[in-house]
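Case study B.
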Amino acid sequence: QVQLVESGGGVVQPGRSLRLSCAASGFTFTSYVIHWVRQAPGKGLEWVAVIWYDGSNKYYADSVKGRFTISRDNSRNTLYLQMNTLRAEDTAVYYCTRERSSYYYGSGFDFWGQGTLVSVSS
Amino acid sequence: QSVLTQPPSASGTPGQRVTISCSGSRSNIGSNTVNWYQQLPGTAPKLLIYSNSQRPSGVPDRFSGSKSGTSASLAISGLQSEDEADYYCAGWDDSLNDPGVVFGGGTKLTVL
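Model:
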């Protein structure tokens, strides 16, 4: 069965860095576009970043552009999010999620991880 | 402020039909398909509708979606208590130098 398992969250001071990981299993990881989506406490969903199935394209929300970097290791079936210069407003549960259709974007997110909480506080 | 506009709340009684609207622009809903997600408290979102009106396997046919121009809507008929959740519309947006996904602000559905 398809599984996405995030890890790497925790409490970090403003200005510091953190790297999230998302381990994928149960599907052909190399065929799917994968996203990071976050949700601040008590707030709605916010798209963060996307990476193409082969890593050839990466796009970011304006709120994280220049600070966050999405990447993937297709040999390890793992997605990453390097988060630098963290701010209080980055506090959120971070989900990795998969496009429903292989090799495509905009088809809907059919599988989600359980999320990992990032708390930015001094 | 979200790129896609949804009402913050909606409500209905069991058995009723409720609709949730989602308004966007030419660069997102007007150019791409709309997806809807249901989020129960404390859980990850679940894909409810994709490609404007398609239901994934396992989603009851009480849920339906539609799109017209730069707006979309989610309809829930035969409302049940377990439908009480947050609902989000989303879609691809082509307007930016870098394209991306945009979400609505979410609609909290209360079953009275």
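Chain B touches chain A at residues 2, 32-33, 35, 37, 39, 44-47, 49-51, 56, 86, 88, 90-92, 96, 98-106 (CB under 8 Å). The remaining cases will be described in the next quarterly update.
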